[in-house]
Specification:
Helix content is 36%, strand content 12%. Strands 2-1-3 form a three-stranded parallel beta sheet, covered by helices on one side. It contains five helices and three strands; from the N terminus they run βαβαβααα. It binds 5-methoxybenzimidazole. 5-methoxybenzimidazole binds next to strand 1. The site of 5-methoxybenzimidazole has 14 residues, from strand 1.
Length: 152
């Protein structure tokens, strides 16, 4: 259809989440009003039914960068934007958890090797290791996400 949500970037807004990006990507477009720290006249907010969204608990001098964040999170979900990258990403991502540590090449870098399990060729063991790493990281850094199915 032709629904275009009207958003206002504002630290007073409801937190913008991956789910919101997913929903926006389904719309035919979006209008984003960039808030100012001093705020936008309440009459405008109400008359245009602006939905206030925040990108986090910090102050910005203006909402332009916040608008770019909303756009980036949304546009990368549009068909054809990411190619194979995205599908591979979301498949390997365990719902509700932070991503496990990644190791690429070379096998030894500045005297540091990579976890042995990753070179074992045992894909079930690798999968289990990644899952466990994701859980440990999430519990340590983002306990608020534990048990939350909403994160990508
Ligand atoms: N802080 N989200 C968090 C925001 C923000 C500041 C903004 C807009 C969105 O503009 C001042």
């Amino acid at each position: 259809d032709d629904v275009r949500p009207s958003l206002l970037t504002s630290p007073r807004g409801r937190p913008f989440k991956q789910d919101d990006a997913r929903k926006l990507a389904q719309q035919s477009g979006v209008v984003i009003i960039c808030g100012r720290f001093e705020g936008v006249d309440q009459r405008v907010i109400e008359a245009r039914a602006l939905e206030e969204v925040s990108i986090g608990d910090y102050v910005l001098s203006g909402g332009e960068v916040a608008a770019q964040v909303l756009l980036d999170a949304t546009i990368r979900l549009l068909p054809g934007v990411m190619g194979n990258h995205q599908s591979a990403d979301s498949e390997s991502f365990e719902g509700g958890l932070l991503e496990y540590p990644h190791y690429t090449r070379p096998p030894e870098w500045e005297g540091q090797t990579i976890p042995e399990v990753l070179t074992s060729g045992n894909h079930a063991k690798i999968e289990a290791w990644r899952r466990q790493q994701s859980e440990v990281l999430t519990r340590a850094r983002r306990p608020d996400l534990v048990g939350n199915k909403k994160f990508d």
